[in-house]
Amino acid sequence: MKKILLIVAILILVLYCERPAQATILFPNADATIFDFGPKDGIPDFINHSGLQAFNVPFGDDRALLEFNLSSLSGTNISSAILDLDVADTLGPYPMTLGIYTYSGDGIINNDDFGAGSLWTTYNYNGENNVLLDLTGAISNQVNASQTYAGINIRGQNVSALSNAPYVAFHNTDNPRAALLRINETSSVPEPTSLLLFLSGAGLIYLSRKNKRHFKNFLLD
To answer: Of the ranges 14-23, 26-35, 170-179, which one carries the lowest mean pLDDT score?
Structure first.
C-alpha cells in the first residue's frame, strides 16, 4: 500500500510541477498609421510613426500597419500566433469591422505599404479594451516560407458616414508598446478532468490489490 501511495504522490507531483510552456513574445520592429485623405483616392498622403489607428470614412482612410521580425522563429513549428493589441482610444458606434491583411515585409513601413497585404480574416470590434487576433496560419506560412518580416495591415473594412464612423487607436505616444505577437503560448498544466481520471484509476488499482490481499488471507484461514 505504501508503495502505491508513494507512486501516486510522485505522479501528482510531476503533473503539477510542470511549468507552463514559455511563449515567444515579439514586439513590432516597425509600426505606423498611413493616411489617405483629401481626396481619398487610394494614394497615401501621410504617415505617422507615433500612432496606430484604423478609420474609414468617405474622405479618408487610416490604416494601421505593423511588422515583426521572424528570424528567431526559423525552424519553429508554429502552433499558435496571437496578435495582442491594447486599445488606447476608440469611438463608436459598434461593431466596427476590421480587415486583417498580411504580407511579407522588410522591417520598414513607408507609404508604399498602404495597400500591402491580402485579406487573412476580419474582426468585429465592439469597443473592448483589448483585441486578440489569431494569426496562426498566416505566421506559420511565413515562417515556413523563410520570410524575415511578417507584415500586418489593419483596415476599417467598411466605409462609414462621418456622422456614424467608428474609430479605434491601438496605441499612441502615451502607450507606445501596446502591440505584441505571442507565439506558441500554451500551458502544460493538466486539466482537472485528466487529473480526476488519473486519481480514479489509481484508487481502483489500490482497491483491487487490497481486495486481492483480503481474498488470499481468507483462503489461508
So the answer is: 14-23
Give how many domains the chain has, as a whole number: 2
CATH code of 68's domain: 2.60.120
Q: Apex CA 110: angle with CA 55 and CA 85, to 5°?
A: 45
User: What does the alpha-carbon distance between residue 83 and residue 143 come to, in Å, rounded to a whole number?
Assistant: 15
pLDDT single digits (tens) 132-180: 999 999 999 999 999 999 999 999 998 888 778 899 999 755 555 679 9
| 166 shares a domain with 58 | yes
Query: Does residue 135 share a domain with residue 60?
Result: yes
For residue 201, the enclosing domain spans 190-221
Of the candidates 191, 186, 194, the one whose C-alpha atom is nearest the C-alpha of residue 20 is 186
Q: Which helix (H) or strand (E) holds 50?
A: none
User: What is the number of alpha carbons within 13 Å of residue 141 lying toward its C-beta?
Assistant: 9
Overall pTM > 0.70:
yes
